[in-house]
């Protein structure tokens, strides 16, 4: 594993699925502990953006603007073809949130379809339309109503943790009221799948085992933050983030942001 693997590794989301909420997201960002970052906050250089920030490259892994633009990212795990000189994939989220173009236009106008970046999965959109694009598949897909899981393969690829998390999210959404602690509980799961269930993505069996958990803990690499985002049908946003350290991987420091989407 190289220290280029800076982006979030697991996203579960429900789009236009729940009667009260237009968008619900539960996500984990996995990273080397030594890579510096800031917790989710409104950015000083663009106060419309709410997101965490990678201090090494300046990008981000997930964010939302006060006008309702949303973006999130995972890396596509393909170590054989990784280029250590490629630009940070976190720029893809940053550039979209910092723009005023439609999500479909943004994806259609990525230079060379994002070929200069190492493999990525990108979600961009608004509360009214979300699109998915991977530079390994090179197809822009509009997200239909439903529940989705995105790890380091393609969207809804049935890796054990993706299938498990999607089912858990579906169970959580049976009621009218959604409690954020239920969603954080999904993202805190450390169950280890059997070796026979693991995908083969080009890393060692030791790493496949480690990366197969929803919540990752190891001496040098792990889940650095868990995020819960809920946007109701009136445009009211609630955004929680819990940040974790190497010393206390199971005890997160929580920040909360709340606002109404403008426009």
From TrEMBL:
Q: Which organism is it from?
A: Desulforamulus reducens (strain ATCC BAA-1160 / DSM 100696 / MI-1) (Desulfotomaculum reducens)
**Protein name according to UniProt:** NRDE family protein
At the highest ranks, the source species' classification is:
Bacteria, Bacillati, Bacillota, Clostridia, Eubacteriales
| Stored Pfam families | TANGO2
């Amino acid at each position: 594993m190289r220290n280029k693997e800076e982006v979030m590794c697991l996203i579960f989301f429900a789009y236009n699925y729940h009667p009260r909420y237009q968008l619900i997201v539960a996500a984990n960002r996995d990273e080397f502990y030594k890579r510096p970052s800031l917790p989710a906050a409104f950015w000083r250089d663009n106060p419309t953006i709410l997101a965490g920030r990678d201090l090494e490259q300046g990008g981000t892994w997930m964010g939302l603007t006060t006008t309702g633009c949303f973006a999130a990212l995972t890396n596509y795990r393909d170590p054989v073809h990784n280029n250590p000189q490629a630009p940070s994939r976190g720029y893809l989220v940053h550039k979209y949130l910092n723009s005023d173009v439609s999500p479909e236009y943004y994806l259609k106008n990525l230079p060379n379809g994002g070929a200069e970046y190492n493999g990525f999965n990108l979600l961009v959109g608004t509360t009214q339309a979300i699109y998915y694009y991977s530079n390994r598949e090179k197809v822009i897909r509009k997200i239909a109503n439903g529940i989705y899981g995105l790890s380091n393969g393609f969207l809804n690829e049935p890796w054990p943790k993706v299938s498990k998390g999607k089912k858990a999210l579906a169970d959580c959404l049976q009621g009218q009221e959604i409690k954020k602690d239920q969603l954080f509980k999904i993202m805190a799961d450390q169950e280890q799948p059997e070796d026979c269930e693991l995908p083969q993505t080009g890393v060692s069996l030791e790493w496949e085992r480690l990366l197969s958990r929803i919540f990752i803990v190891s001496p040098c690499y792990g889940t650095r933050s868990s995020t819960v985002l809920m946007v109701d049908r009136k445009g009211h946003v609630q955004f929680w983030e819990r940040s974790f350290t190497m010393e206390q991987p199971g005890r997160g420091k929580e920040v909360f942001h709340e606002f109404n989407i403008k426009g």
